[in-house]
Amino acid sequence: MRKVIVTAALTGGFGTKAEIPNLPITPEEIARSARESYEAGAAVVHVHLRDGQGRSTADLGIARRTVDAVREECPEVIINLSTGVSDTVPFEERMKLVEILTPIMSLDICSMTFGDSQMINPPMLVRKQAARMLELGIKPELELFDVGHLYFALQLLSEGLLEPPLLVSLVFGKLGGMPADAGILATLVKELPPDAAWQVIAVAQHHTPMTTIGLAMGGNARTGFEDTRMIERGRIASSNGELVERLVQVTRLLQREPMKAAEVPTALGLAI
Fold first, then answer.
1. Which residue of 45, 53, 125, 235 is surrounded by the most CB atoms within 10 Å?
2. Taking the complete model, does pTM exceed 0.85, yes or no?
3. Residue 190: partners with Cβ closer than 8 Å, 6 or more residues away
């Protein structure tokens, strides 16, 4: 089996320090968390932005400060900046983040339900963002929250708005999205192009079981405070690094080896 790209999703768009005491929120905290996650075995860090009050934001000034802080603290790690941000930020504002130019950026390609909230991703604006990312040489990480999202991704590929190999995240356990079901995962993996790089994202109590199944099937894996706060039953993780350490242990128990960050650009065909 090929090596595993381990991603640390450091912050996410919804948690608070009241819920997760060591959640990184400021640019400096996010940068330190990126370093500890890299040292624990993560090749990629997925970065959400927060303002001075801890709220999700697409502010370009905060984005530059955060990305610069990560690059200074941990120049080795590959940055995947979120353009999903949260359901409170309009698509037009989120789309501007592509000008920050990180090697990978997430791209939510379909509208979706999150519990009682909605994330609106209009198809024509998604096409516009995909075209701009292609122009800038940014690899989109396609976050697919439901079965039909994969087929829209394949449509964008056929239109020339995405380039192979696709980088795909299959997201399980969000209320309103795909349930944590190994059968659904297997079906989706069969539909992916053979050269696609894919990972499982699973949240809360579904995190460890679904991530492990994905690893056993040959996929990549993600962990971090965006996906889970628990390191074991009844104990909140002390850091993103601790969550990465656990995922690396699972990876090696399955006779697979984490990929080094320096190997990721070749593996994914990154242009920047």
1. 45
2. yes
3. none
